[in-house]
Model the fold of this input.
Amino acid sequence: MVIKVENLVKRYGELIALDHFNMELREGEILGLLGPNGSGKTTAINCILSLLKYDKGEIQVFDKKMSPVAYDIKQDIGIVMQNVAVFNELTVYENIDYFCSLYVPDKKKRQEMVEEAIAFAGLGEFRKFYPHKLSGGLLRRLNIACGIAHKPKLVILDEPTVAVDPQSRNNILEGIVKLNKQGATILYTSHYMEEVDQICTRIAIMDRGKVISSGTNEELKSMIGLGEKITVDVPGISREAVEGIRALPNISKVELSGNTLVVKSKKGRNNLGAVLHYLEDHNIAFGKLYSELPTLNDVFLEITGKELRDNV
Amino acid sequence: MFKTIFFYRSKALLRSKETMFWSLLFPMLLGTLFYFTFTNILEGEGFETVPVGLVDTGQYENEEAFLGALESVSGMDDERTDEGSGDILFNVTKAENEEEAEKLLSEGKISGYILLGEDIGLVVNKSGYGATIIKSFLDYFKQKMSTVENLMEATAGKITPDQLEEALQTREYVKEIKVSEESPNIVVNYFYTLLAMSCMFASMAGVAEITGIQANQSPLAARLNIVPAPKLKVFLGSAAALAVIQTAIIALVFLFLALVLRVDFGKDYLLTMLTNIAGVITGISFGTAVGAVLRAGENLKTGICSALVMLGCYLAGMMDVQMKYRVQANMPVIAKINPVNRLTDAYYSLYYYDTNGRYWQNMAALGIMTLIFLTVTFLVIRRQQYESI
Ligand SMILES: Nc1ncnc2c1ncn2[C@@H]1O[C@H](COP(=O)(O)OP(=O)(O)O)[C@@H](O)[C@H]1O
Ligand SMILES: [Mg+2]
Done:
């Protein structure tokens, strides 16, 4: 086990930021810690890193008890903090070299690693730039390069894509998958479900300081009682036709509001083909049509009764 | 690791505009300003003794003591001594009455006159070096008198002649403000406090060193708390770089004062440089202690730190040299524990005294202060985890 957290409790005065938080990170995984802002992701990471005192709980990293002086454990961790942490008076190259030097004393070895990190983050043409000359996205990429240059076995990234342009975001997400392929185990936090959906091999959903559900993407989605959702514009559809669709197999709910028909399927079922056939067979004219599979937001909604994104 | 930290921290410091401004440019500008303010004193009024008038109405209760004190630093007009010899500060001309003294003053024959009525009064018609010297002498005398009175009270009048003499000592004072051949001692003090200030400004960077490793102070500091090394090691590498760079900067300020503005630092430049180094180290450790002890954001800590340094400069006489003597006389403890004053005094000792006893006393005091500051710093930052970041 790379990280094992048991019953972690952390209070900030009156506020309970972590309430019996449990988590396991296995070797080779990309674990996504998904939760709305304020759900305790950063607090959990800071406790895992022994930056914060906590009130209760056990934390093990690489099967050893984590502590502020566990330098052997820290040696193998790469951390990308939520807030960019670089030296303003040092260039891109110098910053990466500085942080790498804290882990890798050998200068020659380090030189290669820094070059690799620069290539990895796509910062080649900016190596002589000072941080304040970089765009938000590039700055984040520098922050990541500083965290991973020493090739750690465990990489922890806390919301590395907040406030970055789409190009940088893709660069970052692809980079994380690449790191994982090269052998790093990854803990990734985000409040964007699309990202977690896209890159994580396993997901832990957090709310109010605890993990409320975890599993693979598919496991989570099949936990809830929803299947495909089809939305279609059908001007002037007859009452019989609506009833006909409702009578199709595996349909859980059909709603008509104005010209828009929403068809929800039963858990784990897809009905797009059947609905299309029905409309064509009965010569019902239809306009815009789209189908959605359940998202992590639906999962979150079902468990907590609130929207993931609305909590921002 | 130490080497890389040292190397990059040095680079960062040399690139930091704040460091360059506050440590290098600001003292040079202020020094230049002082230079132009004081050239009048340095060159213009090139006299050594101050001509002063005296009107004695015979009403002053401590008349005898005062005349004695005045005599000990003056050549009275009837036994005029050679100008510039010994400890002669004033050339006293006795006037029969105020009108006569007023006449002498308006003719420019005296810089001012002392009016011994029920109290001691001073009349001058323009400010300047002469007026300042007379005024400071009178202040000094009044202070001494009140010391004596206190002493009398405390001992219920049973004061020994030795005690009285010691209390009324004026020699020391004369030495303090004696006008030497090249430049009045009073003026060099301004430049010495200035150099002391530059050293102590290293404290602001010292604050940054501490907040730089306190995880609750900045993301960067938090980041440095999860590297595989004790934060003391990171701190030492970084602080060593700071000490070296600041010392180099101070050396430049010193050379600028000594060679360009021609401020007299005495003969032993090596010891002056040693003082600079001691000053920088005291400054940095003062900053780290302030940074460690205060629970506030970095800006507030830096602000408080620079305010304390400026207060130290003020008390050491950077804005008005009389302040230094006043503090020394009334609050000797403050003078003793004020690092700016200690530094100023160390420079001054090198300049003025032939032996270095007083110099090493100051250096030892600075060493003790540094030790205390560093102990405080380490005790506070040893705690490694935070309740909240
Ligand atoms: N230093 C702090 N002091 C007090 N409360 C805090 C502090 N840091 C975070 N919190 C609170 O703890 C909760 C969890 O915060 P955080 O771990 O930052 O969440 P996330 O990273 O998921 O957005 C929030 O309610 C936040 O307001
Ligand atoms: Mg967070």
Summary: Residues A 41-42, 82, 158-159 surround magnesium ion (ligand 2) (CB under 6 Å). Chain A has a mean pLDDT of 91. Residues 225-293 of chain A form a domain with the Alpha-Beta Plaits fold (CATH 3.30.70.980). The interface with chain B takes residues 12, 46, 49-53, 68-69, 71-72, 74-75, 77, 79, 81-87, 89-90, 94, 97-99, 101-103, 105 of chain A (CB under 8 Å).
